[in-house]
Write a structure and sequence with these properties.
The chain is of the alpha+beta class. It contains six helices and 20 strands. Strand 19 and strand 20 form a beta hairpin.
């Protein structure tokens, strides 16, 4: 019988990979990931460059066995172990025909923060507005972008007429293209503490200058292109103190140590392939990982040489005197983490760091 670390997510994955009954275990592992059911993304969400870069840096550190704090992200300058890219779930608002005083476009932005647990600490919330690809063509009239909190919906409860409240961002947009970023940490923290306050944001793009008939025609074309190309997302970083341990050295790419007897306790290689588990449709990366497992006997005569604890040695000693006392068992004595990129049930792209997922060393305990 294989020996696993009780209660660990790794033991659940090993049970799945080794073909043992796993309906309940799969549900438990999904809960460990923060999911209520097996994700089935409706559409593929592109992974932002910053999340892919963080993942690649962590994987490179894993292969090299470099010691680092996986709950601090130097690329962003914040602490955190879960990164979520929340897509905008809002809608465009109907605006009147472009006149001297009309706006170019209006949109309610809405981001669902319900997946963030109560105990999670928000350390970063960055609003990303992509106005479209950069071009060398005439950029058209100069525009101005304003962001306000939605104070309330319409009096009749219709969602298509939100009332803007406090203005917290006003920025010139010389050319309606490229990416803009805004710090929403204080706003997101307030929404996290008081979910009923999360009515979204009111985005409006205004025209800054007087215009003649030619510019009016150009403005209509510019606003039409913006309505088609505008994309909004919220990058949220959270920290779960219970899942973050002090800096530790991650796994190095080493072979299992040679043993004089195949029956003695030692580490065995086991590769977890997410495609074999049917999870490749929602796990973006990695495609799998070398989880390994511990298996073998812990005889009293060799207990001290099998990376055993003092307690295991005493248990083996008592077993030699009384056979009713069980022998020490082969268990992981050193584990290391992995990082995963995946999509959840709301099509959010998530990068998350998980402790104790790879068996590095085994011993008797």
């Amino acid at each position: 019988m294989l020996s696993f670390l009780p209660g660990s997510a790794l033991s659940l994955l090993l049970t799945l990979a080794l073909g043992q009954p796993f309906q309940f275990q799969e549900h438990v592992f999904l809960q460990f990931l923060g999911l209520d059911k097996l994700p089935s993304p409706q559409r593929f969400q592109p992974v932002p460059y910053i999340l892919r870069k963080i993942f690649q840096v962590q994987e490179a550190a894993a292969a090299a066995g470099v010691s680092q704090d996986f709950c601090y992200v130097k690329e962003l300058g914040v602490r955190g172990n879960v990164f979520r890219l929340l897509p905008d779930q809002g809608f465009f608002l109907h605006t009147k025909k472009h006149s001297q005083t009309s706006s170019c476009l209006q949109k309610q932005l809405y981001f669902n923060l319900s997946a963030i647990k109560e105990k999670d600490q928000l350390t970063m919330a960055q609003l990303n507005l992509d106005l479209g690809p950069n071009t060398y063509y005439d950029l058209g009239p100069e525009l101005e972008l304003s962001l306000s909190l939605v104070q309330k919906l319409s009096e009749w409860g219709k969602p298509n007429n939100p009332k803007p409240g406090k203005l917290f961002a006003l920025q010139s947009v010389p050319g309606p293209q490229g990416a803009l970023r805004f710090n929403l940490l204080d706003v997101a923290r307030d929404w996290h503490i008081n979910p009923q306050k999360n009515l979204g944001l009111f985005l409006e793009i205004l025209v800054k200058e007087d215009r003649d008939a030619e510019v009016n025609f150009q403005l209509r074309d510019t606003c039409a292109r913006l309505s088609q190309s505008l994309r909004a997302s919220l990058l949220v970083v959270t920290l779960n103190p219970e899942q973050c341990h002090p800096s530790r050295k991650r796994r190095a790419a080493v072979r299992s140590p040679a043993v004089s007897c195949r029956n003695l306790c030692h580490r065995h290689q086991l590769y977890i392939n997410f495609r074999d588990l049917g999870w490749d449709k929602w796990i973006i990366a990695p495609r799998g990982f070398m989880a390994n497992y511990c298996h073998g006997e812990c005889p009293f005569s060799l207990t001290t040489s099998l990376n055993s604890s003092n307690y295991a040695f005493m248990q083996a000693l008592m077993n030699a005197a009384d056979r009713e006392i069980p022998q020490a068992v082969c268990i992981p004595t050193k584990l290391s983490p992995i990082s995963m990129l995946y999509q959840d049930n709301d099509d959010n792209v998530i990068l998350r760091h998980y402790e104790d997922m790879v068996v590095d060393e085994c011993g008797c305990g």
